[in-house]
UniProtKB/TrEMBL annotation:
Biological source species: Enteractinococcus coprophilus
GO molecular function: acyltransferase activity, transferring groups other than amino-acyl groups
Residue span(s) of domain N-acetyltransferase: 54-184
Top-level lineage group: Bacteria
Entry-linked SUPFAM superfamilies: Acyl-CoA N-acyltransferases (Nat) (SSF55729)
Protein name as catalogued: N-acetyltransferase domain-containing protein
Amino acid sequence: MPRPATLSEVPQLAAVLADAFTDYAWTRWTVPADQHQDRIETLQRIYLEELAMPHGMVWTSDTLDAVAAFIPATAAPTPAVLDRITALHADRLSALSESETLVAPHRPDHDWLLATVGVAQPSKGRGLGTSVVAAGLKVIDSQQATCLTETSDPNNLAFYYRLGFELTATVKTAGPPVWILTRPA
């Protein structure tokens, strides 16, 4: 059963996300190989603590093995948080910046961003990812708001389609492609 996460659960949830994104094409492209998983875990923790928890919503399973973070489109990191994020991307920051320059013009206006979703490896395939995302989308639907998400894994497209997202754009970058999906109000 999905429920809102608490701040004290963020370290465990960031570890779940790091595990889920360790071999993801996008993070392999934009996060240095040196201490790769530690960097991803720290980045996920920053996004959860500094953006999703205070400004948006984070949903998890009772066993903390699935997490989905939603951030309002108007939320932005403070300069200090942005500096921490920049440092973690280190020598891959230019790859991230170049890709962002290509992707940004293709993002339609939206109210919410499904920023991240992940399930612990041993718990995959049990519907936990769907349940935590659906819980957040229920709140967004009650606001008659739109939601945007992005993926660099074509295998994720069917997951998002089942949740009501529609493909808006496919952007080729110097690294992995980015599929932009929106869920109408």
